[in-house]
Specification:
Number of helices: 12
CATH superfamily of the largest domain: Alpha/Beta hydrolase fold, catalytic domain
Strand content: 5-15%
Strand order of the largest sheet: 2-1-5-6-7-8
Number of domains: 2
Largest sheet: 6 strands, parallel
Helix content: 25-40%
CATH architecture of the largest domain: 3-Layer(aba) Sandwich
Radius of gyration: 18 Å
CATH topology of the largest domain: Rossmann fold
Shape: globular
Structural class: alpha/beta
Distance between the termini: 10 Å
Amino acid sequence: MAHLTFIHGISNKPAAEELHRIWRAALLKAASPLDLDAEGVTSEMVYWADVLYAEPMPEGELESAAGTLEISVSDTEEVAIPTAGDPLERAWIEAMSDRIGVDPKTGETLEGDNTILDGDGGSTGTMADDLERIPLPGFVKDRFIKRFLRDVHHYLFNAEITPRPGETFWVQDEIRDRFVDAVKRGDTQSSPHIVVSHSMGTVIAYDCLKRVADCPKVDALITLGSPLGIDEVQDKLKPEWSRNEGFPTDKVAGEWLNVFDPKDVVSRLDPHLANDYRKAGTDVVDDQRQNHDGLWTHSLDKYFRGPVVSSRLKSMLGL
């Protein structure tokens, strides 16, 4: 009847099959419940956490950590701030570090004005400022920021990494291959074929749909809690990306739905994508606000359970 290609976001995750189960289970508990099995909708998870992390998160820890930055307190793997000899790459690291509120040399969180906006117009502060309002141990917040910076950098700059002895990856090359292969498999399933992406996964999905020639066409794209509005991310999507022709017209046949929570520390740096990903100079991305409960609003579980995502996904599937 239809097929969904899922792709997850930043930081470590449980093993691929477990993560896939968690995403499908979240849809079952949505405001507008969606039972993919009962509706005959197939799905596949594009899993890439193992490219950057040595071992998967233990079973059950992602669900128990959903309200605490999706990082287990027991997960003590150290992540270093990226370094570069190339001046342009070094300038990007410094600019991105300033954007999220960390010292690019030490990785320490910088003091900011802690400005929090109640609307959905974006943050006047940094990611570190926004994290200050969440009552969690500082080391947990620091881990999240460092992992965000490292994961985004390593993908956009195609860094070489050895997460485990005997396994070395060029990060962008490997993850692109995984995404494109999954979309090709989805292309053989029933339509509509929809890509559903979260967090850093939205950058990967967009990059492949816009910039990888052999990536097949899909019927629709959903981005949740996306950092695609950040200038430094957009800079690394050039020359294929431009503000007036940013929509992946050749690879997305239908709509692009972008959903954000106004207090999501990842997307709130610039939550609206329509003005940055136009089609022939016209705003076409459907930016939708969805409010989540609690202080940590970035989790996929909360996006999937919300009324906007669940109802719109069902509509896009023709259910």
